[in-house]
Design brief:
Layout (H helix, E strand, L loop, with lengths): L2 E2 L6 H7 L4 E2 L1 H4 L7 E6 L5 H13 L5 E7 L10 H7 L1 E2 H4 L4 E6 L15 H14 E7 L1 H11 L4 E15 L13 E11 L2 H5 L5 E6 L3 E7 L4 E4 L9 H11 L25 H17 L9 H6 L2
Parallel strand pairs: 1-2, 3-4, 3-6, 4-5, 6-7, 7-12
Antiparallel strand pairs: 8-9, 8-10, 10-11, 11-12
Helix pairs in contact: 3-10
Amino acid sequence: MPIRINEAMPVVQRLREEQIFVMPESRAATQDIRELEIAILNIMPNKEDTELQLLRLLSNSPLQVRPTFLRLDSHRYKHTPEDYLSRYYRAFSAVKDRCFDGLIITGAPVENLPFEEVDYWQEISEIFAWSNTHVTSTIHICWAAQAGLYFHYGIQKHPLPQKLSGIYSHRTLYRQESLTRGFNDIFHAPHSRYTGIDRADIEANPSLTILADSELAGPYIIQDKRHGKIFITGHPEYSRLTLAHEYFRDVKKGIDPAIPRRYFAEDDPEQEPIFQWKAHAYLLFSNWLNYEVYQETPYDLNLINFTQQGG
């Protein structure tokens, strides 16, 4: 089903080339249904790549979705022209009085900093708090998952001996949960991070459930079902070449990175990466839109605040 976005966005042509249904605003306005309003706080450096990755995943649903891309007021964006942000992104301050069916908060390349030293920590803390009363369900990805677990539950991250990068095997621990419905017992997902969280800290909190984990990468999908929060410690949205771009970028910087685990064919960076996680990424986001958002959100978005405050 269609993604309803501004037709002028550069990613629209890429989506159409991939046969993803992008609906013009004029056509969507004539349909007698209410689309799902999904806010996306995109704090990844390459905005267009992340937009494309997330819009692909949101398109794989029978539900009409209208994303609103958000920007931080307190952060100076070094990699994205101001003109692009002003045309296609809304400042959080401009939407904080609105309610949304769903919210996605992306990762960010700041994981080696203590949370309070991130220049936009105060504002993103405000967004975390706002999501409690203005959003039905929120997905936190990678750094945002660690930051959200810290803000909401006081769970600290810790540095890893070396960067966790590559494709890791995961176990589905709760196959009957709506978010992991249809998952294989074993599935793959990408990780790319320098920090992690301890399983014991999550298990000590009765609000949290680990739905899927990895022997090597640790907890992967963590959920607080009662409060509509989902924490994904990896990057299911990554495209085939994203880890390759990161690897060669770090090589160029002289960082001497390890080759991403089980990513390139025969572990040879000269060969094409093997796309092993695509199906489960689509399924994860389809399940989220259907079971955690559409089935739970009120038809009148203004009732979300009352619903969330009422528990």
